[in-house]
Amino acid sequence: MTMGETVTTYGIQPKPGRKRASLASTAGRLLRMRETGLILIIAVLFVVMSFASPYFLTWENMRAMAMAFAVEGIVVVGMTILLISGGIDLSVGSVTALAMVIAGLLFLSGMDPWLASAIAIVACAGIGAIMGFFVTKIGLHHFIVSLGVMVIARGACLLGTGGRPLGLYSLPPEFKFIGQGSIGPIPVVIVIFVVVVVAFDFMLRRTTMFRKVFYTGSNEKAAAYSGIRTKRVIFLTTTLCSALCGVAGVIYMARFGSAQPTFGVGMELNVIAAAVIGGASLSGGTGTILGAILGTILLSVVSSSLALLDVSVYWQDIIRGTILMTAVTLDHYFNKRRG
Amino acid sequence: MQTDLILKIDNLSKAFGAVQALKGVRFELRKGEIHAIAGENGAGKSTLMKIIDGILRPDKGQILIDGKAVTIPSPAEAQQIGIGFVHQEIALCPDISVAENIFMSVTNASRAFMMNYSDLLERSGEILKGLADIDPSVPVRKLSISQQQLVEIAKALTLDCRILILDEPTAALTEREAQALFEIMRRLADRGIAIVYISHRMAEIFDNCDRVTVMRDGHYITTMNIADTTPEQVVAAMVGRVIDKLYPPKQSESEKSQEIVLSVRDLGDGALYSGVSFDLWRGEILGLGGLIGAGRSEIVKGVCRLEGNANGDVQLHGRTLGAGHYSDRIKDGIVYLSEDRKGDGLFLDMSIAVNVSALDVEKVSSAIGVINDDEEADCAESLGSSLNLKCNSVSQLVSTLSGGNQQKVAIAKMLFVKPKVIFLDEPTRGVDVGAKAEIHRILRDLARDGVGIVIISSELPELIGVCDRVLVVREGRIAGEVTGDRMTEENIMYLASVSSEGAVLS
Q1: How many domains does chain B have?
Q2: Pair B337, B203 in one domain
Q3: Domain span at residue B202?
Q4: DSSP codes of every residue in B45-95
Q5: Would you say B431 and B345 are in contact if contact means Cβ atoms under 8 Å apart?
C-alpha cells in the first residue's frame, strides 16, 4: 500500500443500474410541487378570463402581457438567486433605472450604444460588488446596504438627467431591435427572457456553482464548515443580481427609446413578491427560477385581467398584496404539515 | 405509598400523522424523588414531556395531578399547576440581562406596571448563588453555553414548581458544573419537589437518581429502583436487546504502527492556544480531553484552517501543508465534524443526498460542473447503507431523521471525500446508546483502515472507552498525555483542571 492511501469499509461502492422512479411517484412529486400549483392557478385564471373578456385570449393581449413581465423577469431571476443565498436587494428598481441613465448619457455624448450598454451593465455589476463588499467584508445586512444604494442610485439618476427623461431618438434601429423587434411572431424581448430563464433555471438546479448558493443560504455556517467560501458566494450573488438589473435596464432603454430616471420605483416589491410566491424563502436556501417566473406571470396576468375588467387601479395593489399573503400562508401551512 | 404520588399518567397515546409516538404509556412520579427517564432517541421521552408541559395534547389517556384528572392545554397552564421544564435547547433572549431572563416568566405574570430592576438583580443573584458564578447584570450573549444552560435551570427554579423536568441538562456542562447541578437537584428533591431527569448518560442516572423508567418505541417498558438494577439492565431494556460491549476493542499491540499520519508542530493563533504539538499515528484513535473552553475545538479548527489564523507546521504523511482555506484542507484529506450538528454540521432542510455531497459536489459532477443527480443519490445510498443509516430514501430531508441517524449523515458527509484524517468534535452528543455504540465501532473500523481519527469529547467515559491515547488540553496548551492504564477519569480531570500555579480552575 502506498503512503497515505486508505481502503475503507465505509466507502462508496459502485452500484450497477439505478432503479428509476416509478411513474406514480413522479406524478405524486409533481403534484406536490409549488410550480404545479401556480400553473394550475394561472390556467384557471386563463379559462375564467377568456369567458369574462373577449380581448383576453387575443394575440395582442398575450403579447402585451408577456412584454410586461419579460424584462422584469430578468430582474426576478437575479433576485431569486440572491434570496436563495440568504440576501435581499431593495435597490433593483433604482439600479435598473441607473443602467438606463448611464447608457443613455453615454450614448448622447456620442458613444456607440452597444458599448454604452456594456459599460452600464458593468457599472451595475460594480454597484452590486460594492454592496457585496459592505455585506461580506464590513458585515452589514443586505437590507440596510441595499436600502442605502436604492436611495443613492435613484439620486444619481435624477442628478444625471435633471429629473427629466432622456429622449434617445437617434438610437440605431439595430439597437432598438432588442427592445422592439420580433423574430417571426415572437418579440426579441421574450426570446431573451426565455433564454435567461431556461439557462439560469438549469444552472440553479444542476450545477455545482449554484448548488453552493443553496448550501450557503440553507445554513451559512454549515456551508463554511463544508469548505465552501460562503462570503465569496454571497458577494457573487449580490453582484449577479445588480448585473441582471443592468441588463434589464438596457433592454428597457431599447424598448422605450428613452432613459427614464424615475423608472422602476417600487419594482423591488413586485420582484420580491414574485420570487416569494414562487417558493423562495426570505431566510434563504429555497427557491426556483421557474417558480419565481410563474409568480411573476401570475401577478402580471392578475393585473392585466383587472385592467380588462375595468377594475380601478387602486384595487390592483390590494389584490396583489392579498395574493402574496395567501401564497405565503398556504405555503407555511403545507410546509408545517409536511414537517 | 399512594398518597405521595404527585403525577400519574395512564394509557397515554399520541400520534403524529401515521407515526404513533406514544402507545398506552404510563408513568408515576412521587414527591421528592429524582426519576430518570431513559430511552433511545425516538423512544417517546420528549413527546411525553411535551404533553406534561402542555406543549402537545394527547390523543388518548389520563393525566392525574394529586389524584385529580387534569388537562394541560399550554405551558403557561403547566406553570400554574407547578410544572417547570428546562429544555435541552437553550431558549434565552441573548440581548437582555441574565436577571431579566431568569425572571422572564414571573415578570410576564406580574401585575406591576414598572420593572423593579434592583430587586430583580438581587433576587436573581440569590438564585444563582448556589448554582454558578454568574453576574446577573450581564447580557446572556456574553455567557458560555454551559453558563447559559445554568441560567435556564435558574429560570425554572423561580417558578416555585412542584414538578421539575430536566431534559439532558448536563449535555453542555463541565463535570464540575454538572456536580453542582446534581447537588441542587438533591436539595430540591429533599424539599419535596419531584424531578424528572432525562439523560443518555448511565453514570449520571445511577449516581443521582432514585428510580428509572425505560421507554422504547413509544411504549412504556419498565420502572425500576436504581438500587435494584444495573446500567446493563437499563441499557438492555432501552434497546430491547443486550449490548454486550458499549465500546469496541482498542488497538492491539500488533496493530501499532510507526507511521505518522498527521504531525502538528508549535501551532498557535496568538490568542486562544499556543505551542501545540502532537503526532497522530496510523491506526490509532486519538482523544482530546479537557474542560469546555480549554481551546480544544479552536486547536482542531486551527489545524483545519476553519477559523482563526493559526501559525505552525502541519504535516500530512510527511508533506507540509501550506496555509490556505478549509477547502484546501478538504482537498488534502483533512475534515472536521462539528460539535453542533444542527447548528453548523448539517443542512437540515435539505435532503440526505445533498448533505452527503456538500464537501465536494464536483465529485458527482461532469467536467463543466453539471451535477449528476443519480450518481449523487447512489453515493449517498452506498455510504448510508454501509453506515447502517435508517431512512426511507436519500431524498428524505435530514430534519426528519433522529439524532443518531443525523450524525450518521454528518459522518457520511465526511467519508464522501475519502478523508485521511477526521477530526470529530463531540461525535455522539445527543445520540442514543445504540447509535453511539455503532458510531464508535465505525470510528474504530476507519482507524483500522488507516484513517487518522481525532475525537474531542467532554464525556470522559467515552474518551477512555474509545481512544487509544488522550491528549489533555488546558488553557490552550497540551497539558499532558495519558495512555493505557493511566487513562482514568481522575488523571484526565487532574491534567485538565490543575493550572500551572496549582490552583483548580472551574
Answers
A1: 2
A2: no
A3: 2-239
A4: HHHHHHHHTTSS--SEEEEEETTEE----SHHHHHHHTEEEE-SS----TT
A5: no
Q: Examine the predicted complex and report whether its ipTM is higher than 0.85.
A: no
Specify the pTM: 0.79
Inspect the interface and report whether the beta carbons of A214 and B330 lie closer than 8 Å. no
Put simply, whether B394 touches A (Cβ < 8 Å) is no
Predicted confidence at residue A194, as pLDDT, reads: 95
Using one digit for the tens of pLDDT, what is the confidence trace for B136-193? 889 988 887 778 888 888 888 777 788 999 988 877 777 777 888 888 889 889 988 9
Partners of B330 on chain A (C-beta within 8 Å) are 227
Chain B residues 485-504 with a CB less than 8 Å from chain A: none
Does A21 map to a domain? no
CATH code, B122: 3.40.50.300
If asked whether residues B229 and B268 sit together in one domain, one would say no
Q: What is the DSSP letter of A266?
A: T
Residue carrying the nine cell digits 452506498: B382
Residue B176 and residue B72 share a domain = yes
- Tell me, what CATH number does A179's domain have? 1.10.3470
The sheet with strand B68-69 has its strands ordered as B19-30, B5-16, B60-65, B68-69
Asked if residue B503 belongs to a domain, the reply is no
DSSP code at position A19: P
Domain match, B234 and B262 both: no
What's the rounded Cα separation, in Å, for the pair A156 and A139? 25
B364 neighbors B383 (Cβ within 8 angstroms):
no
Same domain, B395 and B461: yes
CA distance B320 to chain A (A): 14
The more confidently predicted of residues B289 and B111 is B289
Q: Tens digit of pLDDT for each residue in A262-311? A: 999 989 999 999 999 998 988 899 999 999 999 999 999 988 888 888 88
